[in-house]
Amino acid sequence: MNKRQFIKTIGTTAALTILNPLTALSFSEQPKISNDKKVLILGGRGFIGPTIVKSFLDGGYEVTLLNRNKTNTHLFENLPLIICDREKENKAGLKEIDKKYKDKFWDVVIDTWQKSPKAVSDFLEEFKDSIGHYHYISSVSVYDKWDKKFIKEDEPLNPLPELPKSIAEGMEHRYALRKTFAEEIIRTRIDNYTIYRSHGMRDYRSVDPNNIIDEPFWPIRFYRGGEILLPDVKNHHIQAVDVRSMVSFILHCSNKKTFGEFNIAFQPTPFKDYVSSLIHATQKPTRMHWIDGEFLIENGLIPYKIVPFWKPHPEGSYYFNVQKAIEAGFVHRPLVDMIKDQIEGYKHRYPKNDIKFGEQPDGRVKCYSLDQEKEIIKKWKLKNRN
Ligand SMILES: NC(=O)c1ccc[n+]([C@@H]2O[C@H](COP(=O)([O-])OP(=O)(O)OC[C@H]3O[C@@H](n4cnc5c(N)ncnc54)[C@H](OP(=O)(O)O)[C@@H]3O)[C@@H](O)[C@H]2O)c1
């Protein structure tokens, strides 16, 4: 599919609105296969969904979406859409699905669902004989303990109470339990599945473009340049995952029929190497101040809560073992490329580069402000002069 055909596919309005995202989502490295395979994407118009849709279109799949037609309705206007509310009790939403889709066979179904394990269960009960390969976006939060490094896919998962009997009951559980429940349900209902246990997704998009809390602090801070404060934890490891790399792997698993559970993230990476990628992506800092952690804490810059990617505990938190995915064909693109996309997304959302970190008008705190940073650097310089 060439660019013109794709723009036609998603509709003119969408093309104008998300021109930059499309550039960011150009998957030229993907092998093009024209196999007429059908993929049903449950969701598709939120955070990672659009990347999945674009990737499967590029991969030669016939794409259908299933959602309520509420979120980002300008996206993929010309793709077939099954309108369905999966949050309706007793499968009422699924039962309303147009008859023309009832007997259809989907080579691939990708479920981006997070909210209700019962919704996963209902869908599989209703459609499991119509699915060739089911993919589910899960999370490393399914592991019971993060108390050691290099947790593999066969480590114990969160112990589960009784399976929720209704959508509402399922929603009462915390995120990690809902993901664990959903996985458990998948394993009991279907054989041909792939589960992606993702870790801290990063993308051109932000999870909620209207919420400052979801903006990527470090890429934006380096993009702004000047004198930058850094916690002196150069060899502290960090880990997350680039959405594009993960989605390429979903396509790969679909094409190769690769089944099972996979931890999905980049290799544990020293913070200083991440900083090096930030510099390469922006060429911005005039000076970096590596400041002692205790001093930062004394001045209110609390690890993780205020300073992202500085999380000394628990031991396993940035150390998940991703070898199984790598052996199955997962390739994480360079962090520099991921960071550049994050910055492009920020520039698109904040063309005036006027985001204000620190305390927000509603009392929430997102990292720290430029003024706070200046003040702490000044104090640190003074301290070290004496
Ligand atoms: N690890 C991380 O950092 C991280 C970050 C973000 C997301 N995630 C995970 O990634 C997964 C994907 O989330 P996403 O938002 O990016 O997915 P998405 O597929 O891009 O967006 C969610 C989709 O679900 C649809 N939807 C919402 N409520 C629905 C309902 N009741 N019935 C049917 N469809 C409904 C929405 O459309 P309508 O509103 O129109 O129905 C939307 O298209 C989630 O499982 C989440 O846990 C992980």
TrEMBL record:
<comment type="similarity">
    <text>Belongs to the NAD(P)-dependent epimerase/dehydratase family.</text>
</comment>
<protein>
    <recommendedName>
        <fullName>UDP-glucose 4-epimerase</fullName>
    </recommendedName>
</protein>
<feature type="domain" description="NAD-dependent epimerase/dehydratase">
    <location>
        <begin position="39"/>
        <end position="148"/>
    </location>
</feature>
<comment type="pathway">
    <text>Carbohydrate metabolism; galactose metabolism.</text>
</comment>
<dbReference type="InterPro" id="IPR036291">
    <property type="entry name" value="NAD(P)-bd_dom_sf"/>
</dbReference>
<dbReference type="InterPro" id="IPR001509">
    <property type="entry name" value="Epimerase_deHydtase"/>
</dbReference>
<dbReference type="Pfam" id="PF01370">
    <property type="entry name" value="Epimerase"/>
</dbReference>
